[in-house]
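Obj.: predict assembly geometry.
Materials: sequence records (below).
Method: joint structure prediction, all chains together.
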Amino acid sequence: MTDNQYIYQAMFLLDNGEVREQGFNAVREWVKSTLEKHGATVKVLRLWGERPLAYPIQGRARATYLLGYIQGTEQTVSAAKHEMYLLGPVFRHMFLKEDEIPAEELTLGIEEIKDEDIEVLDDTPVVEALFEDDGESEVDEEDDSEDEAPEEGAELSDEETKKTAEEGEGEAPAEAATATTETEEA
Amino acid sequence: MTDETPKTPQKFDYKDIETLQRYINSQGKLYSAKRTGLSARQQRQLKRAVKYARTMALLPYSN
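Observations (raw structure tokens):
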């Protein structure tokens, strides 16, 4: 890897629980300090949105998106990625090389947002929600099974099996007889 | 009469989900170049943008 400086567009997915506990500004400061610790210059770091995920990630259904533009070397980005993978509120990140920083992004820069202004919705883990549904359905099935008659596969006593066998034998010839009469008429 | 068909963007951005969703089907699969009518270069840009969007959970891998 060379020591060339590049401009990177970076996007971070923040854990909503951490954002709610620590506050958005504290979490953003952690991301900024992590990048700067490894030698990157943070030009822009702003809230991109709080939105639902297209698919669940480690039980999370929603996330807070943070968009940034940084300047640094490939080693810088690699080290920052490694730290974010191991620690902190960032559970997914992406760095893309860019030619330049868009002018409208530069004007936004590192804008200050009050924690009260950001609405972070409750991120109920998907896994727990599934277990809750299963629990309810099991209870319903048990209640139904008590009221209903025994199923076909259920074990019957000897007398019951004999009765059912006799009934089956008695019905079969009658059906055969009706079938023959129909053919004769035709 | 006004032409309301959306124009093809000059550059595909993975954050522009509304535009990208025009080029994927209900299953989340990318339409072919024959169907999108894009040039080879644009189709490659689109493919890359959709894959970045999937990585960042902005678009699904499959529905």
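Conclusions so far: DSSP finds three helices and no strands in chain B.
To do: check interface contacts against the pulldown list.
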